[in-house]
Amino acid sequence: MAIDKVKNFLESINELDRLMIFEESTATVDQAAAAVGCKPGNIAKTISLLVDNKPILILLAGDVKIDNHKFKDTFKTRAKMIPIDQVEELIGHAVGGVCPFAVNDGVPIYFDESLKRFETIYPAGGNEHSAVRLKLDELEKFINSVGWVDVSKFK
C-alpha cells in the first residue's frame, strides 16, 4: 500500500509523527481541510500531470487551480491530467492519496508559488484518510523537488 511507503519514508527521516490518520476521508481539499481543522488553502494538493507523455507532480495550495496560460508558458505545453486509471501506476499513489512522498523514481516534483502564503501545509499521506503536517521549509528539506513554479490562479 502507498501509505506504507509514506510511513517508511517518514520513518527513515525520523518524522513519522507528522503523519495524521483520520477515519473520515481526506480525498478532496474540502474533506482534508475539515479533517485537519484548517482552511482549504493550507491543504497542499498534489496534481498528477503529463508533460511530453511523462508524469510530473505539482503541489499547489488547496484554494487555487492550474492556470493554463502560466502552465504553458512554464512547460511549453498545455496541462494534461494523467488519466485516473494510470495515476497509481505512473506516480505510485492512487487518486485521493497522491502526495510528494515516496513516489516512483524519476517523477519530478514541483512546488507552486501559491504554497508560500502559508506557514503550515498538509499534503496527503499516501491514501484517502491521511495528511502530513509540514512547515514550508520542511517541505523543501524533506522533498527533493525540481524547484518552484508559478502555474496557479485562484478558483
Describe what you observe in this structure.
- The chain is an alpha/beta fold and 155 residues long.
- It has a single domain, classed as YbaK protein, CATH 3.90.960.10.
- It is built from five helices and eleven strands; from the N terminus they run αβαβββαβαββββαββ.
- The strands form three sheets. Strands 2, 3, 5, 6, 7, 9 and 10 form a seven-stranded mixed β-sheet that branches. Strands 1-8 form a two-stranded antiparallel ribbon. It has a two-stranded antiparallel sheet with strand order 4-11.
- A hairpin with a 2-residue loop joins strand 2 and strand 3.
Instruction: State the share of residues found in helices, binned by percent.
Output: 25-40%
Could you name the CATH topology?
YbaK protein
Strand content: 25-35%
User: How many strands?
Assistant: 11
Structural class: alpha/beta
Q: Summarize the main sheet.
A: 7 strands, mixed
In short:
The protein is an alpha/beta fold.
Keywords:
YbaK protein, alpha/beta, 155 residues, globular
Q: What does the secondary structure layout of this molecule look like, with pairings?
A:
Elements: H1 2-12, E1 19-21, H2 29-36, E2 43-51, E3 54-61, E4 64-66, H3 68-75, E5 80-81, H4 84-91, E6 109-112, E7 120-123, E8 130-132, E9 134-135, H5 136-142, E10 147-149, E11 152-154
Parallel strand pairs: 2-7, 3-6, 6-10
Antiparallel strand pairs: 1-8, 2-3, 2-5, 4-11, 7-9
